[in-house]
What does this fold into?
Amino acid sequence: MEADARSVIKGDGMGIQFDCIVGESAAMQEVFRLIRKVADADSTILITGESGTGKELIARAIHKTGKRKDGPFIPVNCAAIPAELLESELFGHEKGAFTHAIRTRIGRFELADKGTIFLDEIGEMNPSLQVKLLRALQERRFERVGGVKTIGVDIRVIAATNINLEDAVKESRFREDLYYRLNVIPIHVPPLRERDADIPLLIDHFLGKFCSGGETSVKGIEEGAKMHMMAYNWPGNVRELENMIERLVILADGPMINIHDLPDKITCDIDGLADGDGASHARRLPERGVCLSEAVNEYEKALILQALNRTNWVKNRAAKLLQMNRTTLIEKMKKQNLMNSKDASPLLK
Ligand SMILES: Nc1ncnc2c1ncn2[C@@H]1O[C@H](COP(=O)(O)OP(=O)(O)OP(=O)(O)O)[C@@H](O)[C@H]1O
Ligand SMILES: [Mg+2]
It folds into this structure.
């Protein structure tokens, strides 16, 4: 099967890569399963998830895996094209249809014939165009702007959004009938903070990508730095992680990326280390488990570092914040190898 040719299978038989998508969390395994199941069908797919979770990557993988793979994949970003131009962008226009229509132009629906059209950020489409889109989706027929001839196409439709369309329907910003027409096969991609089992794999994947040019001395990443990255909450999801690895590969000091190379937002992300309501300071247990003593150690270090930064490295005040006496703090700082900038520590970047 084509899908298997594109998969990377781990020793235990688990698929950890599908096309360019990597992931071993239960959530990504479910996404891989769905891609395999739906790739050959023509049903409309709605991919939902926060920005940077990999929605476009999934849409492309579905197209490349399915029976339409030799046809075109045509993406349209509904939010990036001004509302007054989007109709002609999608359906094309006839010469003279409006002031600047000096010649007939074919739209993305026609370009996608025998292939897939990817309607990205569909939630941003204005209501009058939503009506026209609904008809085009239902009948696979439409007219170019200013045209009378009805054009039929053979396309597969994949839509994506990072807004909650059910809320948009309730607030009358999105047509309910169009929502049901799109949501035939829903694929939800959870945010990265809810699938930290994927983080080490993604780190290695991007290290492979950015270290392969041979222009960098970076060879890998230390376990401690990985732990911090797993605890961080990644508001920009995989895109943020990818950009960070690209930067670390260029800026890291030694062959192994360590916690001193990481930006403060990661090493001091106490919210990421605390659980959801922030009331308890217990770290979220990653799906793949954790080395407890190492995690406790890293957590202690992150809290001490926060206290020191907050008090401008005045140890008396930092010790007070941590409810310990100054000598205990100094002992712990020595043990954790924490020094301030005057001691030429790389920590205060
Ligand atoms: N599971 C993954 N494996 C490998 N790379 C990934 C994965 N998820 C996302 N990426 C990478 O992260 C970046 C963002 O992914 P993508 O553009 O598909 O996200 P998106 O959900 O469409 O974001 P947006 O809503 O902002 O358009 C891309 O460079 C993509 O290659
Ligand atoms: Mg996208």
In short: The pocket of magnesium ion (ligand 2) is lined by residues 55-56, 120 (CB under 6 Å).
